[in-house]
From TrEMBL:
This is 5,6-dimethylbenzimidazole synthase. The keyword Oxidoreductase applies. Keywords: Flavoprotein, FMN, Oxidoreductase. PANTHER family: IODOTYROSINE DEIODINASE 1, NADPH NITROREDUCTASE. It comes from the Bacteria. GO terms for molecular function: 5,6-dimethylbenzimidazole synthase activity. Its EC number is 1.13.11.79. Residues 9-175 form the Nitroreductase domain. It comes from Amycolatopsis plumensis. InterPro entries: BluB, Nitroreductase, Nitroreductase-like, Nitroreductase/BluB.
Amino acid sequence: MIDEFYEVLRKRRDVRGEFTGEPIPEATLTRILEAAHAAPSVGLTQPWDFVLVDDVATREKFAKHVHDEREVFAGQLGEDRASTFANIKIEGILEASLGIVVTYDPARGAPDVLGRHAIADAGLYSVCLAIQNLWLAATAEGLGVGWVSFYREPFLSELLGIPDGVRPVAWLCAGPVSRLETVPDLERHGWRSRRPLSAAIHHGRFTPRDPGAASAADL
């Protein structure tokens, strides 16, 4: 059981190009949403909601917006970086079976949110935990999930009728996949390499490191 859990962690990928478009069985969708809804939350506020988007016209409008934002980002890159980025697919909005938009409502449970008085973003962190639960559950079910971040919040709020004060945190592309890549896309395409665990561990106090230096354990 422990090995299976860690295998799910290792298999999870940010999926863009491997969606088959086949429908997600209703019982499976319910299970992954239940997993998301079981996430821990500050003050037991459960400040998330899940907007399920399967309408093609809506997804096409969002995909166009994301494409425009991709162009904005590409225009900020130098020649070499832009060349690398040109080969990277950033979303599977139309290929996926379903869009799941996860929102954050900071007013839920307010003003007396136990645990949020000193860390205003604790509610937002709770939403991210729900997203991670959903992602891992979907991976365990053999589904793929891709987090789309190339969008402007006001656009998505207007597109989906999200009320003022509620933030759209993530558009997740979800559905059956042909496979899950063994190496993350950004690493495969040479955009960035993972840093080793040893570079992220500090003992007692945070110790700044030269980002280009490798420890003996990494060599």
